[in-house]
Amino acid sequence: MVQNERELLGDVDLVIIGGGPAGSSTAMHILKYDPALAARSILLEKTNHPREKICGGALTLNAERVIEDLGINLDIPSAPVHHVQLVYGNARIDLAEDGCAKRVIRRCDFDGMLFKAAKDRGFPTMEDTRVRRILRRADHLLVVTDRGNLRAQAVVGCDGVGAVVRKTTGFTPGRMGRLWVAEIPVDPKSSRVFQEQVLIIDLSYVKEGLRGYYWEFPCFIEGRPFISAGIVDTDHKNQRRVGCADFLTNILARRGIDTRDAMRKAFPIRHFSPRERFARPRMLLAGDALGSDPLFSEGISQALEFGRLAAKAVVEGFARKNLSFSNYTKTILQSRVGKELAAYARFSNYFYGPRAELFLSLLYENVELRRLIGCSYAGTQNMHQKTLRMIKLIGSHLLHVNQHLRNFRSAANLTSTPAPEEVLTP
Question: Where are the alpha helices (DSSP H) in 12-87?
Fold first, then answer.
């Protein structure tokens, strides 16, 4: 590894670290806002595209809107998904079918497509270049890579959960969780997720201590039909050993899923928290380095939007010759995406805990709230603007909460449930 500061690869105004959706979105938005700055910048990717990315991903209408605004043709293999269904026991809760999920893509295809678009449009790129650390100097940043060093005026950290910028420059680790994944080949004619084109989010296992959910959705891997199944544990300090590979294996066995040919993977995830800082002088975070959706762990749409916000902040900072980025955290928190993620963070505290049945029973009985959540993910409505309405819906629900819980538990057909007193205890 090169450590000598004199062994420079070059001087640039901006280094974008990470060639995923956030990094490519930042690059393409800078090209759109300030082509001259783009010419003095570089986008680094630690491997080579197309590169393996652990999970598939659902694209929302909101994500597709950003891609369309960038003038990109979304011509990659995908599995259509026409609705998202929350499950609790036998209870089924369908979210609005207007774009909270449109299709499932493979991240290796999607990320490679975006990176190629940025490169083809003239944004300087460098692949197979791993960033080791960021060193602060009096009037610049030194980006230390395994191929040499870059001297930069500013850095945007889009390098995902690993986030070298976060690890080496004083940012806090953030709110971490973990995901376990099994990708299983299936016959699409006998697979419910293929037949119904549905993305399933099953919260039944919250009862067993999982602070998260089980998912199942269709996908194609090298042209072959698979289901992606897995669990999210939003609490990496969970001491009950529920959020783990063995627990996923147990769930799959209970669901009668043959896992003999499954491909298994695990990886950490960082969830968005409105209590964090997202910038330091000369440094910004975007994408998973900043944080993904804390409710359902959706990250692509937010990464694309964070890239746009980071690009605006960078362009304005260079125009004003002020790279403190002191307003960036406030900008994120006051943006639509920031406000929605903050709302999801509040909701996740209720979904994944002792009050889960209370809020699921509200969703089960209230079409308006289901539609609001679905439209929020699609980007066609804003949950954060409906706070008072949601409070009224919850208040009305609480007036007859015991009856609502009995009805919901009957529909779920689950017998071992908390008593109403436990559910309502703050």
Answer: 21-33, 35-39, 61-69
Phi (first) and psi of residue 239, to 5 degrees: -90, 0
Is residue 386 a contact partner of residue 421, using CB atoms and an 8 Å limit? Answer: no
Q: What is the CA 328 to chain-centroid distance, rounded?
A: 20
**Do the beta carbons of residue 312 and residue 29 sit within 8 Å?**
yes
- DSSP, res 382: -
Name the burial class of residue 334, with classes exposed (0-12), middle (13-18) and buried (19+) by CB atoms within 10 angstroms of its CB: exposed
- Cα 391 → chain centroid: 26
Our CA dihedral for 67, 70, 72, 74, rounded to 10 degrees, sits at: 10
**Nearest of 106, 105, 348 to residue 233 by alpha carbon:** 348
Q: What is the pTM of this model?
A: 0.91
Query: Residue 192 in 3-state DSSP?
Result: helix
For residues 1 and 146, the answer to whether their CB atoms sit within 8 Å is yes
Place of tokens 């269709």: 218
Q: By C-alpha distance, which of 191, 199, 197, 194 is closest to 87? A: 199
Q: Are strands 175-185 and 224-233 parallel, antiparallel or unpaired?
A: antiparallel
Phi, psi of 219 (to 5 degrees): -160, 165
pLDDT tens, 188-247? 999 999 999 999 999 999 988 898 999 999 999 888 999 999 999 887 565 456 768 899
